[in-house]
Write a sequence for this structure.
């Protein structure tokens, strides 16, 4: 379970920093590849993964009428995704048809969902870009999802942008992209990332003052450690 | 022939909505893949397709001197494209050399052409982005078109971004991308898309008020139909 | 050696114009493919290439501890790159892990380096976009470079975006992308590009006034040559 | 249920002919893309699809020890796949690690399974090529599947080579590749394909004798229909 | 016009040697990329290009019935291609549907056509592989061409595998692939390639005897020139 | 240094088995991707890596005359590669021009080199396929290497097919592909692979007799261990 404390911490760190923390634990492949924010609003997206799995569409099973069925997994998933979760779609990295459009994304936003990610593309992307819900995709894609996608499973483990996404994993998005933190590591990764961020902020200030990175980043000189301790004390971090 | 009425209607609907209308008629592949606006100005591009076909360049046939020839198909096409048309280039999805640059695009703009699309790339793309003519491409590309492209045919059927484009087809571009509506369907598709847009606008308003998409989108509940009728009456749409 | 005069000239011309000047000399492949500015600030990046070569990472040679080594080529290169140079990284067109992050790029900026280019991706890309140093990459990439890259050689000839980059070549970046001018041609290419730019500016003005491109671009009519001479006299160019 | 009659018919027709029969019914996307036989032995592979779904591997969940678990889905699936079925693996079109190796494929063969297909690659591919079980993949791949794949679900609908594969669909492979016939159409498609094959054999003979394809293929001339009727009578087909 | 003399010469040289001869004349892009023989029979394919252009298929224009039309460009082209020519298809490098199948290729063979090339794929590829006509494609592809291709133009300039192919260019295929020799250069390229082949055969013999390539290949030592002259005299070449 | 003992052991094991042994040590990326034997002759290729690095060719530096220079790195490398080594070329995964041709490969063969690998393509590939030296590439490629490649460095660390190759690493090729064993691990990996191969051979025999893989592979049942011990005793392995 994602605690409020961890959620708040993850709002203050970058996907780059989280990548390094995961790399140190042998997890090298948690950054969703080739996915970008439709429009970043400066705040991180954080939430537990709630997933939707698509398979390739067969024409006879994906006529326009299928949406008449209230149990259609795409529509059902949109109504069932918990507030605070991130809705993650496995579109098999295929952006040639949409994964979803502005009406469904608006519904997710109204329902309090924390964000939406697909390794395909969204339609109505200019509208979605203006909504107050973070959204990440590969590229805009106008064709209805029925053209190439069939929604199948709700909240099963999936792949998204070459990354394994297990329901309940903690998904974090910033202006750079989206990373998936395994559920059982979320607390410790958040803690470590907050520490690393403090150090990186300190280093950035020093570098802007003209200091060399040698001995500073990483902190191989004792002086660096002392300076950082002083900085933390001064900044209250 | 694209009528003024249909042109005006198509200025008010999205490529996503048009995709769905075409999908209902069995046309699943009319959205030009992997092409984007250099800078969207908020208005749709609408016009009949006027095409230019490139083949791979052979070095001896594509020296810098070829542009001295007034009959060079690229230059000829730019002077012949009718005002109100959309200039569509088949660049074989190759953005490694330019399809055109700012001077030619400026000339098209001055001549009243409605827009320009390539499945390759434009050079001088920062300048083109600021022109008052919509332009869509895959990515910026500085090298002269002679490097990889030889202009060959004017106004023949082509492929562009995996989509068939027949001269006279109606090309519509918005902030998402570009779709090609077969000429004989333009009027009925425009009518249907206007209707669909009204419904989608109604649905969006309802969703923003907190209404579930089940029964609403699509309108499987009678109440939805009644609400929509009332909304249309109130809005005069 | 890049002279100040040539450097200043190259700040006033586009990569598109430079591409054409190189094309005329039989150099068809100097524009770095599929690389874009993180955020273009309106000024050209110009400098001599200082290179860094990556090879694929082997896990045992690329643990997080390797950065403790002051001689690590990535860190060493960042401290050694001359002010005024452009730092160019051969990332084998692999953006799945970062080529560098904001701290190193900040250090380069503070040291007076003219810009940075990779055919991979940067991490902390939103921060880098806001720095006062031009940066070009394929796409944002949060994972630490150790994930897929091992820094190996400093200032050797490399490939970047399918282009040969020899140390000392003159690298020019604008809002469109990055081009590599062989060192021995820099002066003459700069001269020619300045001349071409004057002509293109003249042509653009004429086209905006409504003049046809036939006879104008290229200047196959005597009238064009006369008009251009008059324009130059009037403009003092 | 795949009947013996239909199975036998499908052994005598090509994936090309089946593609056309499916195309006539609006099913345009049933041929598994970019998959080939390791070594074709001249007989068709025919059987009902039994599926295995992979997602990207997370390192901590895919250590070498996981195979100690008898319930590991890859091993479990190999023991559960019914004799006569075709084992189809969704490897997300990723051949960078193996989907399976010769020991598992040998076990499938011994158990009477009709064939195996992956849109990734097999390891021990030279050995598998010599086994008496048809196998289709993208390319050889030595790395253990744990490197990039995690076996997850058994006998759920999957994608394979961009094609939807539903458990029970009838999978047919020949020297060209693999096609997926929806279960409910298997009988009628088999019947039609047998008819089409007779006609194509007749046409081939006529063409070899020097007859033009015009009027012959398709049979738009009455003479063709008469000749074919005579041929069928003579051949007893 | 391809003379019999030149045709015979081109049957004795490799596409590699022809590539070099073209490279010396500044033609760097005449080898059709990513195309291979279905089954090489040890003899070169040589003939003048006769072309067929495909564009992406629009569903309503490519129903199965279109082949009833005797004027359908694919069928018409097969009947019109001159004996001795090579039939080259521009399939836009898309092998997801067939460019042609065994019946049409058989018809071309019977009509005396010298070979067939597509940058897409053939259906019935195991049958085509056994025919006595050289055929080159990207990969086997069972789906009917109507699925993704619309035959449009006969004998116009096209692209095939990124190479410009002008009707009448001389197309040569061997076990390695296919190269396109511009018509006006065919005689001189054939002559030069025959000379180069003699030298390469001599060099190969010398290398097999243990001689170093330095001074031998290229013939920078006088001794090499003398030895080659003696070899030619002895061999009568 | 590769000992004779280790070399002989590595001739008896597969790249698949070696992949697993490396995977157990955390090395997940040592199998060269998308490279295949031109024609496998049934024996493994084994030798220490001797490398050649290519960068993209610049036209003025890669005219046909450059081969007149005896110090040209491609020619020099071919004469300097030690007998028993494997010649590995970094072609940046670009098979659009050749990495080498039959004359150079013949020279390597005569000099006793153990094999040749490129992540690009060979020209004269049908001839190379028949030589008594193992050769691996991506696909045949007739154009001279000067078209896209410039040979630069001899025996430096390189990337080949996304794998790091350090001079002296032990390169093993079989019918499946090529794997790179870090030099310091060669002995222990060879030992372990020989052991694993014995077990896999035992397992294969058992599976062919009808035994389930559960408990057998891996050997989680005591009975398996006992049976294997008996098998080894009987077989003398």
């Amino acid at each position: 379970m994602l605690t409020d404390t961890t959620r708040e911490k993850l709002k203050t760190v970058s996907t780059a920093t989280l990548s390094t923390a995961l790399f140190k634990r042998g997890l090298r492949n948690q950054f969703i590849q080739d996915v970008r924010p439709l429009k970043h609003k400066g705040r991180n997206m954080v939430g537990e993964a709630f997933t939707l799995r698509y398979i390739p569409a067969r024409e006879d099973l994906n006529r326009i009428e299928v949406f008449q069925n209230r149990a259609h997994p795409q529509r059902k998933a949109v109504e069932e995704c918990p507030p605070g979760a991130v809705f993650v779609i496995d579109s098999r990295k295929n952006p040639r048809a949409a994964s979803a459009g502005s009406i469904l994304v608006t519904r997710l936003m109204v329902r309090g969902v924390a964000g939406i990610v697909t390794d395909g593309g969204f339609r109505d992307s200019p509208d979605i870009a203006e909504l107050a819900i973070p959204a990440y995709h590969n590229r805009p894609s106008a064709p209805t999802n029925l053209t190439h996608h069939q929604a199948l499973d709700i909240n099963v483990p999936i792949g998204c942008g070459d990354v394994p996404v297990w329901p309940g994993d903690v998904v974090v998005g910033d202006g750079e992209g989206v990373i998936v933190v395994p559920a059982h590591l979320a607390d410790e990764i958040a803690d470590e990332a907050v520490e690393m961020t403090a150090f990186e902020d300190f280093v950035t200030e020093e570098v802007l003052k003209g200091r060399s990175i040698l001995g500073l980043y990483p902190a191989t000189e004792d002086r660096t450690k002392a300076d950082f301790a002083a900085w933390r004390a001064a900044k209250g971090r």
Remarks:
- Chain F has a mean pLDDT of 97.
- Chain F has two domains: 31-181, 189-235.
- The domain at 31-181 of chain F is CATH 3.50.30.40 (Glucose Oxidase; domain 1).
